[in-house]
Specification:
Layout lengths: L3 H11 L3 E4 L6 E2 L2 E2 L5 H7 L6 H12 L4 E4 L7 H24 L5 H20 L4 H4 L2 H24 L7 H28 L5 E4 L2 H11 L13 H5 L8
Parallel strand pairs: 1-4, 1-5
Antiparallel strand pairs: 2-3
Helix pairs in contact: 1-3, 5-7, 7-8, 7-9, 8-9
């Protein structure tokens, strides 16, 4: 259900002055996504699978040249390699964790806790790539916070405790530490943009797992006079709109 068209239409309805994207300065500079010769042809041929949000924002700015696009993510060297490596590690780690559970190696309280984690995580994965409104509802943000909390505490403890999972220990700890560092840097960059763009409508486009951290940051009392955070549903509801 999530398409370039649905995201473009949502951005068009909101009509922002500024769009903040979870990309770094190697992709966005001078208020625009850097032009890559032949990108659209490569996308059409299926050679280059650029993200939906990237393509939707690029299309929106082409028709609204006054809109500024700004990056807020940290620079990660060899980003594609980094992402591919971590996806492979995450898959292997989850499979090993499931095997430890299925082999009955966890004690009774741990098994119950793991079952809760697996249930919540699987439900979350099912919602990915659904409609924009479904992906942005408040209850899903609560679910993400629940998953992240369990991963930072319960799953970390299991990974360090059981022999089959210990080969993932250093990687898992490093990823959690980097996640917190990255979140702090992201929030700092967003704050800088808020301070520099008063009385403007800003759209923040980010991955779901970062969404709860960003929302919690923007809802701090000390930011009440600086910004007003509204949900996507509220942003699209006046006038009424079809389901995005």
């Amino acid at each position: 259900m999530l398409t370039v068209k649905s995201m473009y239409n949502a951005i068009k309805r909101i009509n922002p002055d500024l769009i903040l994207m979870e990309l770094d300065s190697t992709v966005i500079s001078n208020c625009s996504i850097k032009t890559v010769w032949g990108a659209k042809t490569a996308e059409w041929l299926g050679i280059w699978n650029n993200p939906i949000e990237y393509r939707a924002v690029r299309k929106y700015q082409k028709k609204n040249k006054q809109v500024c696009i700004s990056p807020f993510d940290v620079f990660i060297p060899n980003r594609k390699t980094y992402i591919a490596y971590n996806r492979a590690m995450e898959k292997s780690h989850q499979e090993t964790l499931s095997n430890v559970y299925q082999q009955g190696l966890l004690n009774s309280p741990e098994s119950v806790e793991y079952e809760k984690y697996a249930e919540i995580n699987n439900a979350f994965l099912q919602i990915l790539d659904s409609s924009l409104l479904q992906m942005n509802r408040a209850s899903l943000t609560d679910t993400i916070e629940n998953i992240l909390y369990r991963e930072k505490h319960f799953i970390r403890r299991l990974t360090l405790q059981y022999a089959a999972l210990q080969p993932y220990g250093n990687w898992y700890n490093a990823q959690l530490d980097f996640w917190d560092e990255r979140s702090a840097a992201i929030n700092k960059k967003i704050l800088d943009q808020l301070n520099a763009n008063s009385n403007k409508t800003i759209v923040i486009i980010t991955g779901l797992l970062h969404k709860s951290d960003i929302e919690s940051f923007l809802q701090k009392k000390e930011l009440n006079t600086l910004c007003k955070l509204i949900t996507l549903e509220s942003a699209l509801s006046n006038p009424p709109v079809p389901d995005f």
